[in-house]
Amino acid sequence: MGAFTLEDLAAVVAARSASSAEKSYTKSLLQGGPAKTAQKFGEEAVELVIAAMGQDQTATIGEAADVLYHLMVLLRSRGVSFEAVLAELERRSGRSGHDEKAARSGERELG
Fold this sequence. Notes:
The longest helix is centred in the middle third of the chain and has 21 residues, at 33-53. The chain contains six helices and no strands. The chain is globular, with a radius of gyration of 16 Å. The relative contact order is 0.11. The protein has 111 residues and is an all-alpha fold.
């Protein structure tokens, strides 16, 4: 078995979204709609920031995993494919972060 990838995570989220809320935490999050999944993602992002600032590597790893999982759930709740996000990253990777930022006039950029 190869390394677990973000594509694998997206596939797990997709599969679990077809389950029942009683059996799947993913499904229960999705039933809350985009606002609920966005709120949960935000909570997890804050927890990651706190762990990283505390310089706790184990907590940072765990919280980063939570952030990635909740990002995939949020994307699914909005009907955005992971492939679309990867395509956007690929599009952006051809320029420096500063050039990309200037071209998008205030949107977020890659560093």
